[in-house]
Amino acid sequence: PQLTATGHFRTEKVDGKWYFVTPSGHLFFSTGIDVVRDVTDSPNGNAHPDWYASAIPSSGSMAFPAWNLTRKFGKSDYLLDYYDFVLRRLDAWGVNTIGNWSGRELMQQGRKPYVLSLLERDASLPGLTGVKFYDCFHADFTTKMNAAVQAAFGSNAAAAQSIDDPMCIGIA
Questions:
Q1: Among residues 101, 112, 94, 88, which one has the least CA distance to residue 31?
Q2: 22 and 166 in contact (C-beta within 8 Å)?
Q3: How far apart are CA 172 and CA 169, in angstroms?
Q4: Element (H or E) spanning 167, and its range?
Q5: Which of 55, 67, 107, 112 is the most buried (most CB within 10 A)?
Q6: Residue 98 near residue 114 (C-beta atoms within 8 A)
Q7: 167 vs 32: CA distance, rounded Å
Q8: Across-strand partners of 127?
Q9: Of 158, 170, 161, 164, the residue nearest 28 (C-alpha)
Q10: Helix or strand or coil: residue 12?
């Protein structure tokens, strides 16, 4: 059905069921992939130097994605070529959403709906001991979370753009 166009993604109940609705008012089934970016956590080659046939950089960081993309595109300044390539590939696969923890520059291109990761792991927020979760019941949690979110919007261009960006489905 054609629903009211609001200019932003939203949820709406239609015939007793909840749906995502596009900025233009159409129902939307999101099929997305998380971590669509050119860098990931790199293993420390110094921890197991016998695992690698090539020399380990002095930093120990084995930046395999960057190395492979440099080889694929034949240059170290590959980011725009990579984003164009990956967007065409996602379209070919029927993937219509850029998921959480993906490249901010990719989202800023405005070519595909996305979910923006605002705070990956903020050390200023109270956490639970021994696990990677915030302590949302801590007395200072709400105050510190509000401050962290405001700081992220102030220092992150993708976050600032997402406020008015019709391609932003939401912020995680």
A1: 94
A2: no
A3: 10
A4: none
A5: 107
A6: yes
A7: 13
A8: 134
A9: 170
A10: strand
CA atoms of 67 and 71, how far apart (whole Å): 6
The tens place of each residue's pLDDT in the chain, 172 residues long, gives 999 999 999 999 999 999 999 999 999 999 999 999 998 888 899 999 999 988 899 999 988 999 999 999 999 999 999 999 999 999 999 999 999 999 999 999 899 999 999 887 788 899 998 888 899 999 999 999 999 999 999 998 899 999 999 999 999 8
Of 90, 154, 151, residue with least CA distance to 122? 151
Pairing, β 27-28 against β 10-14: unpaired
**Unique residue bearing structure tokens 């405001």:** 150
Place of tokens 């130097």: 49
What proportions of the chain, in percent to the nearest 5, are helix, strand and coil?
Answer: 35, 15, 50
| Element at 32 (helix H, strand E) | strand 32-33
Amino acid, res. 111: R
Query: What distance in Å separates the CA atoms of residue 84 and residue 97, rounded to the nearest whole number?
Result: 15
Q: What is the pTM of this model?
A: 0.83
